Amino acid sequence: MSDLWLWPAFIALVVVMLSVDLFFFRGEHEVTLKEALLWSVIWTVVGVGFVGVIYLQEGSTAAGEYLAGYVIERSLSVDNIFVFAIIFNFFGVPTMYQSKILLLGVVGAIFFRAIFIGLGAGLLETFSWMTFVFGVFLLFTAFKLLRSSDMHVDPSGNPAVKVLRRVFPVTSDYRGQSFFVRENGVKMATPLLAVVITIATTDVVFAVDSIPAVFAVTNNTFVVFSSNAMAILGMRILYFLLRDLMDRFIYLNLGLAVVLGFVGSKMMAEEFYHMPIIISLVVIAAVLFVSIGASLVVSGKQLEQGEGAH
């Protein structure tokens, strides 16, 4: 079990990182590609570098588990990015507001995932057969990814947004960065609040998939939470880096399905065979490397052929 001081220290680190993010991207700021590249490198270095802290406090096995969890969550976050783009297009969110919305989404994601991780750890500790249940769920998720060629998301059907529209009238346009305005004495919500709610509640669905995947490589609650949090902290800026390349990740769902199927099978077989974490890490990294590399190569050739035909 992790030293108790690690939890408040890590939470303080997360708060500092969020504060830095908020400071550099405050106000109505449109993130440039240069900024996205720079900060993606920074957050990746911080996220991967945290493995050193895990190694010093928990040992080499926990360090490997952290790295595997970070890679899984980081890869699954690309799916989140696809959904963010759909939500922003649906609500017609101006580019200058997207950074603030995603920052709030990151805060909400860390909060909800902390709750889910606590529940998941409690279930696994109390009921040993939950390992099998989590494994089956991951296999089912992998099967769904294989079956789905397109990302289907309908923001208008989000239950939380429906509740919001019943409680408050919603303005037809954005009012700066305000979530509420008062018109003719009536308090009204703005579309910005609806977007934040949609982003936050949609991420809950992704958490249901990704958290069991990390539990499949480690039972250390601190490692699960820290790897999730570190990956999520870099997710917002990753959106601005990859938003123009999303159509090129044509084999990503296939790669993610293989990864989820692998860790789900590993979780179900844990009682009979404990796979060394280094093998898990190599398999996960290799599958993702091949799926992303193949996506970029094939889509690049398709673009060249399309331009040639044009």
Shape: globular
Number of helices: 12
Please give the domain count: 1
Q: How many strands?
A: 2
Separation of the first and last Cα atoms: 61 Å
Please summarize the sheet with the most strands: 2 strands, antiparallel
> In which order are the strands of the major sheet placed?
1-2
- The secondary-structure class comes to mainly alpha
Order of helices and strands: HHHHHHHEEHHHHH
What is the alpha-carbon Rg in Å?
20 Å
**Residue share in β-strands:** under 5%
Low-confidence stretches: none
Q: Helical percent range? A: over 70%
Average of pLDDT: 83
Brief summary:
By secondary structure, this protein is mainly alpha-helical. It is built from twelve helices and two strands. Helices cover 75% and strands 3% of the residues.
Commentary on this structure:
This protein has 310 residues and is mainly alpha-helical. It has helices at 6-24, 33-49, 51-58, 60-91, 95-126, 130-147, 159-167, 191-215, 221-233, 235-242, 252-268, 277-309; strands spanning 180-183, 186-189. It has one domain (6-309). The protein is built from twelve helices and two strands. A hairpin with a 2-residue loop joins strand 1 (180-183) and strand 2 (186-189). The mean pLDDT is 83.
